[in-house]
Predict the 3D structure of the following.
Amino acid sequence: MDVKPVLDAVASCYEAVIDESLWPEAVDRIRDACFAHTAVINYFNHETGVHHDPYDLPDLAFTVFSSNLQKEVVADYAVNTAQSEGALYSEIQTLMRNAENGDLFLDTDLLPMGLRQVAPDDMRQLEPFATSIQSIDIFRRIGVVLNRGEPWRDILTVQFSKEHDEIPDGAGQQLAMMAPYIARALNSGRMLTALRRRYAMVLEVLDRLAIGTAIVTDAREIVLKNTAFDRLLSEGDALRAGGDGRLRAVDPDAEGAFAHQILRAADCSLKKSLHSGVTTSLSRGLEKDPLSLDISPVRFSAFDGPVSRGYAIIFAIAPEWQLATNGLSLAGSFGLSKAEAESLTHYLKGYTYDHIADMRGVSRETVKSQIRSVLSKTNARNRTELARLVVAAHVPLLDT
């Protein structure tokens, strides 16, 4: 038994949980570990009884193919074998109702009883064997049941080409060895997929308001973040992501409290404690105002299954970003031109006319004229009154 390919496949699955684009590579590693031609991970939606379009991904369903099974080829194959594959699907559903997690099954287990001992040459004439050989160069299959418990029913299958009359020795053992680990990775991945879908639009909106947003696990692993949060990490004066991908406070004196706040929020998401979240701040050195943070639980009330990990959502606001963003929002309210809005943004940050002129590549007199126009349109007398106007116009989006 070759353990290294199994370990590589399992590690790749956990990496794919964080970055969904890595799933094809992970499935390739599963295929290689089982000496197979191709591999497929299927999630079956038990509630609807429907196997979803693998490339549409509705309702958290997904199917991932190894790289040598192309979308168009699979689609054509599904059309050509709709009846026989549909019958196989019904047989698989029956098998899963009686199987335990980790149970292996052969494609011949899904054939009518009288055909299960058919010789390989005769099997090649049967459907779906005949069509699968012709369409996708697959003759034999072996599968393993994953996450049979409600509401999930998952299957991992590996397929062997027409060159293999019999399944290679050791393939089933390799598949059985990695099955429990891949099942656990799929469960984690399903939760993260839910997080991404539920919060993707929210993160985009908050990005436009320069509010850094991230979702982290109880162990502070970053599973989702927007561009504004990336910018905070790149500045590196308050928050950083370590080599292990975990979020940390730059200030060592604040690190312990920061970790505890995230853990408390994550515990609350699992209903282990009562904790509505905390508003805090992190120092960014003497030259900048502190970074404002709101750390809250991510709740999954009445969600699609048991939650094994706690999650917290972090909203981070750099004061200078918020002021600048709301300064830009004044442009629409007071009919400012694009040039006036750009000068106003820098003006609210405290830059001089000369500095603004250098940054924008215009003359000092142009900047001065634009700021004078802004003051006139907003009925403000100076920078302080503009700043007050910005604050007064701010409407919080995160109303608890």
Notes: The chain has 14 helices and twelve strands. The mean pLDDT is 76.
